[in-house]
Design goal:
heterotrimer; B: alpha/beta; ten-stranded mixed sheet; 14 strands; 13% strand; globular; disordered C terminus; C: alpha+beta; 2 helices
Chain lengths: 163, 532, 81
């Protein structure tokens, strides 16, 4: 199933010493945030906190320059890496069992899956059963899912970072 | 004063169920996809977005390749991928092939960066005994590996030539019943060489590898004689490299296969004279130059201020030197940069060089064993170096007491494997360089006291990322394929006895289709002497 | 005295205790837990590291948390990324 392209604005605040980004965990899963945060420990002191339900604040205190431009650049780099990490998590969730299949096939004499065709058929069935997008929910169902992200047009003036 | 702002981001359209498992990163203005099998593909940003969205269809010129490499799910042959992966990791379970023997700690040189923790020449108590040497051979030949490489190191190993002779002769005798392929290599500073030793080494097919840090003023500054003796180490190296290379020719050996190899250790002095170093290697006919950085073992921990440098300085030097070496190749000079060649073998061939320090998991204990002069067994020579600095944490046990099975299954060996399995390490598990990289738990231990280290703060991580990035950048810009032809030549290995039939007399398969599947599968693994 | 509050949904509480023990040589460290957070209080900080201790501690706990999460994930489902 396909997720459409989504525009988002990540808010940040900087105080001349550090910059903090506030992230919606619906859009940025915890694993993606942790993955991106880990990559910045050479450049910054990184601290995570929870300003609200399903929100994560990432505070970056650079080890080097801390002028306003440097802080904003650092926030931009973090946002770019976060997008990469979100992609990695989502691709990983979808392809994990295929990877397990060929790893098992390569390194173990027996494997629980008899063939890749069978595995792919199972994945298709799971995909239908999961129904994350609630395709099976009638269109006239009155209450939308509470955790559906807001896909409203929240595009700022800035050039979007490379996804 | 605080300032608020926002960053506009676009999450690309994603149809993950149409994708295969892959890692990705950016090279120049392209997106690099890499697969567990080592296969890779460069896409433009728009094509990458189409791939993610599931709209890169069969009419796209890259579609078939992306399916074949396992990046697109529909049509993917997962069983073929499993076969490729098995071939890439064929060394798993084979057992240690590299057996590093410390014949003595005595050394007549006092190198500014000495990693080996030498002792003075009167310390005969740091010589290996014949009884211990016998146990080394007995232990090594019980490895399940069909290929065994004895590598003599020190100190200066030729100070204890009797043990070298014994190990070569005794292992040959024992191997009549074992039927393994055995190679011998000697890492020597050449300053204790004489004709008797040289002729014996030639007659017994012991490969020679010497330390050569550059022209006289660099080499002798880095590697002075202990006690300030008058003669110049550089002259000794020159004399004996030329002697051996001349004798190989006189013996009718192919000089491309039979020649003295050399290792260079980069100090601050080298950075200033990098071009002279390369020119010297070329003038001596040395075909493989490893641009090795300093490692955090031994005396260097005390002398860093005098000879060390910033990581960024080393990486700048590496890039300049790599490009110069590439230019020389374009002019027909056959010289390769060793670490780049290791990465290229992983990137451009279906095989893996099984270099014990650049694989996942690392070869410490499972691909390599080091035997100290006193019979202590270590998972690697670096473990022995840590011990020499007063920390015995990596000692596995003693010859005659610890069986080979116990050594391989030792908790320390398992810990090193876990700490170097890229699939389990944060950052590494998602890194585009994972199929080509390897981490060094002992370096991490020396730098931070932790086998795992913090990847972004680890010098080796930056080095490996930079080297792989430099290679991919150059391949990405290689519009006429001429550089790939050079790089493929760097990946070729052939056994010293008989060249494979598909190579011409120069051993150069060039950019022919046959070279796309280089015949390195049966080649001997690289020596640890070239450890970065 | 500096204090650090680490939310349990973001940081591994067991890791916080482990890392705290590693820093005992440079400060007196008290670790308290409630259902949501782990609070780390630093007293008697070695003046040589006073400026950087909390920052180092924070990165250290983060790195170890990610390491634990990664390892657990591999055990459960293999690395799928």
């Amino acid at each position: 199933m396909s997720d459409d392209a989504l525009q988002d604005e990540i808010a940040f605040v900087e105080d001349g010493r550090r910059v903090a980004l506030t992230l919606d965990e619906e859009l940025y899963p915890r694993d993606a945030i942790l993955g991106a945060a880990y990559l910045f420990v050479d450049r910054a002191w990184v601290f995570l906190s929870r300003p609200g339900d399903r929100q994560v604040e990432v505070r970056l205190k650079p080890k080097g320059d801390t002028d306003s431009a440097a802080l904003e650049a650092l926030a931009g780099e973090f946002a770019n890496e976060l997008l990469n990490q979100v992609l990695r998590v989502r691709i990983g969730e979808s392809t994990g069992r295929i990877r397990e299949y060929y790893m098992a096939r390569a390194f173990f004499s027996t494997t629980t899956q008899s063939s890749i065709d069978q595995l792919l058929a199972e994945l298709d069935e799971e995909e239908l059963a999961d129904d994350d997008l609630e395709i099976s929910v009638p269109w006239d169902t009155p209450e939308p899912a509470a955790d559906t992200p807001d896909e409203g047009p929240a595009v700022g003036d800035e050039e979007p970072p490379r996804a | 004063m605080t300032r608020r702002g926002s960053i506009a981001v676009t999450h690309p359209r994603l149809d993950a169920d149409k994708l295969g498992p892959f890692r990705f990163g950016r090279i120049d203005d392209k997106v690099l996809l890499t697969h567990d099998t080592g296969q890779w593909h460069l896409l433009s940003e728009p094509d990458f977005e189409a791939l993610l969205a599931g709209t890169l269809g069969p009419d796209h010129p890259d579609h078939a390749a992306l399916v074949d490499k396992g990046f697109i799910r529909d049509g993917m042959d997962a069983d073929a991928i499993a076969d490729r992966l098995r071939r890439k990791k064929r060394w798993l379970g084979m057992g240690p092939h590299l057996h590093v023997v410390i014949t003595t700690l005595r050394c007549n040189q006092s190198c500014k960066y000495c990693h080996a923790s030498r002792t003075d020449m009167d310390r005969v108590d740091t010589d290996m005994s014949i009884d211990t040497a016998r146990l080394v051979v007995d232990h090594a030949l019980r490895s399940p590996s069909p290929f065994i490489a004895f590598e003599f190191q020190g100190g200066e190993p030729t100070v204890n030539m009797d043990v070298i002779r014994f190990i070569v002769e005794y292992s040959r005798e024992r191997n009549r019943n074992e039927g393994k392929t055995i190679e011998y290599s000697l890492v020597t500073n050449m300053t204790r060489m004489d004709e008797d030793k040289a002729e014996w080494l030639l007659a017994n097919d012991v490969f020679l590898c010497t330390s050569l840090d550059g022209p006289r003023h660099v080499h002798d500054w880095n590697r002075p004689f202990a006690g300030g003796q008058g003669s110049a180490p550089f002259d000794e190296v020159m004399k004996w490299v030329q002697y051996f290379n001349r004798r190989y020719v006189e013996m009718g050996r192919d000089p491309e296969l039979w020649h003295v190899d050399a290792l260079m250790t980069t100090t601050r002095k080298t950075l200033e004279h990098w071009r002279e170093v390369i020119d010297l290697y070329v003038s001596l006919g040395i075909r493989n130059l490893y641009l090795r950085p300093l490692n955090p073992f031994g005396f260097i921990m005390k002398t860093w201020k005098a000879v060390g440098y910033d990581q960024e300085d080393f990486l700048r030097f590496y890039e300049q030197a790599l490009d110069y070496i590439i230019d020389l190749n374009r002019d027909g000079v056959q010289i390769i940069e060793g670490t780049a060649a290791l990465f290229l073998k992983k990137m451009l061939t279906p095989d893996d060089p099984n270099f014990v320090d650049l694989r996942s998991p690392i070869g410490a204990g499972t691909g390599q064993i080091a035997y100290n002069y006193d019979g202590t067994i270590f998972p690697s020579d670096e473990g022995r170096m840590v011990d020499a600095m007063g920390d015995p944490i990596f000692a596995l046990g003693r010859l005659g007491e610890l069986t080979p099975d116990e050594a391989i299954g030792h908790p320390t060996v398992k810990a090193l494997a876990v700490a170097s399995l890229l699939d389990t390490l944060p950052m590494c598990s998602t890194c585009w360089n994972a199929p080509y990289c390897g981490v060094r738990p002992l370096h991490n231990y020396m730098m931070s006291g932790d086998l795992f280290g913090q990847r972004p703060n680890t010098p080796k991580c930056k080095q490996h990322m930079t080297i792989a990035r430099l290679l991919f950048e150059r391949l990405s810009r290689d519009t006429d394929g001429s550089l790939e032809a050079i790089f493929r030549r760097w990946t070729l290995e052939r056994p010293r006895e008989t060249p494979p039939p598909d190579l011409d007399a120069d051993g150069d398969a060039g950019a022919s289709p046959a070279a796309s599947s280089p015949a390195s599968g049966d080649a001997a693994p690289d020596s640890a002497a070239a450890t970065e | 005295m500096p204090e650090l509050m680490l939310h349990k949904s973001l940081y591994d509480a067991a890791v916080v205790h482990q890392v705290a023990r590693l820093y005992e040589g440079v400060a007196t460290i008290a670790v308290d837990e409630d259902p949501h957070a782990v609070t780390v209080r630093f007293d008697d900080v070695d003046p040589d590291v006073a400026d950087v201790l909390v920052d180092h501690f924070g990165n250290h706990v983060l790195v170890e948390t990610v390491k634990q999460a990664n390892a657990a994930e591999q055990v459960l489902m293999g690395d799928s990324r």
